[in-house]
Amino acid sequence: MKLKDRLAGIPTRAAWWSATHPWWAIGSWLLFVIAAVALATIVATERPTDADYRVGESGRADALIHDAGLAQPPGERVLISAPDGGLDRSVGNAAAATVADEMTEVESVEEVGDPIPSEDGAALLVPVILDSEDVDVDPLLAATAAAQDAHPDLSIEQTGDLSLVAAFEDRLGEDLRSAELISVPIVLILMLLAFGALIAAGLPVLLAATSVAATIGITAPVSHLVPADLSVDSMIVLIGVAVGVDYSLFYLKRERQEREAGRGTVNAVEIAAETSGHAILVSGGAVIASLAGLFVLTDATFNSLASGAIIVVAVAVLGSITVLPALLVKLGRWVDRPRIPGLWRLNRRIGRGGISGRLIGPVVRHPVVALVIAAVGVVVLAAPALGMKTHEENIEAVPGDIAEVQAFKRIAAAYPSEGGTVTVVAQADSADRADVVAALRRLADDAAETGHFTSGGEVRTSSDAGTSTIEVAMPYNQADDRVAAAIELLRSDLGPTVLAGVAEEWAVGGEPAHTLDDSEKRADRLPLLLGFVLLLTCLMMAASFRSIVLGAVSTVLNLASVGVAFGVLVVVFQHGYGESLLDFTSPGFVIDWVPIFVLAVLVGLSMDYHVFVISRIRELVASGVPTRAAVHQGIVDSAGVVTSAAAVMVAVFAIFATVSLIEIKMLGVGLAAAILLDATLIRLVVLPAVLVLLGDRTWWPSSPARRASSAR
CA-CA distance, 169 to 164, in Å (whole number)? Predict the structure, then answer.
């Protein structure tokens, strides 16, 4: 028996065993989930370190600085100003003294610097040096609050890397928890609409919930191989709910259909395993293949997200072909109880594919017209993607109602030199120390003369005198396009001119340089990711359905879906259409990681119902139905499931469009809009039109009808 034939029989064999040993299957699943959850309490989760995020020249600079012991200690900044803009110096100094007194009482504070006046004298800036990066910012914020209470006539605000990250994580956690809590009842309502019965509606939610719980537990030990990013749990919930509900829908709908045809429960489960179970296995493989493309980016965050998402998909597939058949056998016809009278009657009145049957008719009768109209719509929606401008998230893309963000923006306005700075690090023999120090100072002066930089700080040298660094400030905020030009000038022109022949090794780093390197790396690897995902899913489709043509069609449709998603992102977030509706301010660009993740997730999830539709059509062709009629009937039979599955995805992702963080909002809007259009315009218009036009050539080089005939 060939490998693909053995794989095709896995769902059937698993379902048969589960159907004949239901309590063993249910008990084994519960034991698996409990054991997985227990892992999270036994094994500590490993988080990425700063070294995991190093990239390009900025990463090399960071490594040189770290190895030389020149890493700057972490710090916070406290801004003192008057609400009317006129700060009395003596009053400001008194407030600064209070800040210093309060901060020195905090155990993690190593030093409080002297207050720095702004150029116009309207503000004072108090630097606070901490003893490590692993610091609880709450006592620091409490000290600032105490100083504010002591000087109510002034504005005393704190910001810094640690407090900004803490505030961002708190807001992210609030947003995601709110979205997750809302998503559960919405998914349950959609399942009630799809089935009209409480138990049937609850089973998909139960499978999704247990799959998510098990995966979150499994990620704890896996994190010691692939460190777990802070956002991975939320992404597991997002993907787990989508695929867990989808797979249950596929299975339940087909099992119910077979029971309605008069078959017994065990027989109905077995047929569902042979058909929908096989589709779930292929679909899960396609989703995993698509998500695996994220590893191409060699990025710590994407590695973590890909690992979590792949595991939850694999767990959901496992549950769908094992515990779900067991539950269906034990429940029998009780799966359709208790019925919701109005919804149950509505479902029966509409019937399977009642609405889609009327909509698909014109597409099958006039495939050329339908294809042209749909193709024009896809091109119009995708065209804006050609002008997509991406940028790493910066302070301008963070909600302005966060206190630490407001303080950061006010400091940047009052102290331009406290804005973005780049760090030049040079390494040489200790005997050449004086030459390196002089060269770095000369480089800072030359940089200031260009107008792209303002001033250079003091040269700092390691204890062995082998490594020296200098910080050079820029008068631009991080979102300014001139930042990249300034860094490139320093790296390709000024740096080589001054440091060549003096330093053995040198590099330009710092936060703006890291942002530039990270963005360039992602932009360079996006085509590679796109090619990897499309090629792998193409090969999987071709191998699963033994059709090169279907593999090519799937690739083109996936590319169209990606284009539509990117076009929507550009129109909404880059150009700002819908700002008032979605409650955001356009940053003028798309955050660079969002298109990458949308690409991988969209291709994977849209393959779910694509595989389900193709499987049903192929099943009909194998039974002797002509391709045109099989397309019509296959769409009618599967459209209800596709619509329900897409509705769940769209609803879940649309919830994420309501959060305050713009990057999560982008992700939600991009995926919700793309899946809505993919499930309707592309899969229910373009796909059937193409299949009707191709006819029997769809299955080239094989023939499902011929294989079925020879098998008989």
Answer: 9
